[in-house]
Amino acid sequence: MDPDTENVLDSVGPRLRALRRDRGITLADLAATTGVSESTLSRLESGQRRASLELLLPLARTYNVPLDDLVGAPRTGDPRIHLKPIQRYGMIFIPLSRRPGGTQAFKMIIPARPEPLEPTPQTHEGFEWLYVLNGRLRLMVGDRDLTLSAGEAAEFDTSLPHWLGSADGGAVELLILFGLHGTRAHVHPSRGG
């Protein structure tokens, strides 16, 4: 078996275990729903048993996900992007790019809150460009405290202490381009003719 196939098969068990735990399902509940024994599910998750279609099909139905997601198969021929939101720091990040390294693109959603969060500035290597799609963003960079409205953009060196949050407690949606090694976004206004 080629190494790529071996790596895909080796990652199925941990992926299944993580999915089950994320959904808060016990092995007993999963066995009752799928008709696959607890011991088989346990061995499948621990990598002691290889995945087969007979085992994966009921799991895909139960989790309501495509088989490709269970095995981590590379996407081929389909130009659609399958977005998987990530929740961190009370915010939702939706990766819009898949290329490792280089500039990364995200849609970020800051949910509405009755009370805006207290700023907790962070620093890290890189450079960030953002564009507010909706809402009012509070952006703190270094000693500057700014409010940006829909249609406004900003860019800054992330080695400066910075923080993003809602300016008024309402939801905020923005696009972010992030370059780890100081890659700056160059946006040129269109020239009318």
Report on this model:
The model has no long low-confidence stretch (mean pLDDT 83). The chain is of the alpha+beta class. It is built from 5 helices and 9 strands, in the order αααααβββββββββ. Helices cover 27% and strands 28% of the residues. A 6-stranded antiparallel sheet has the order 1-2-3-9-4-7, with no helix packed on it. Strands 6-5-8 form a 3-stranded antiparallel sheet, with no helix packed on it.
Task: Break the fold down into its secondary structure elements and pairings.
Elements: H1 3-22, H2 27-34, H3 38-46, H4 53-63, H5 67-71, E1 86-88, E2 91-95, E3 103-110, E4 127-134, E5 136-141, E6 144-149, E7 153-157, E8 162-166, E9 172-179
Antiparallel strand pairs: 1-2, 2-3, 3-9, 4-7, 4-9, 5-6, 5-8
Helix pairs in contact: 1-3
Quickly describe the structure.
The chain has a 6-stranded antiparallel β-sheet, with no helix packed on it. Strands 6-5-8 form a 3-stranded antiparallel β-sheet, with no helix packed on it. It is α+β, with helices and mostly antiparallel strands and 193 residues long.
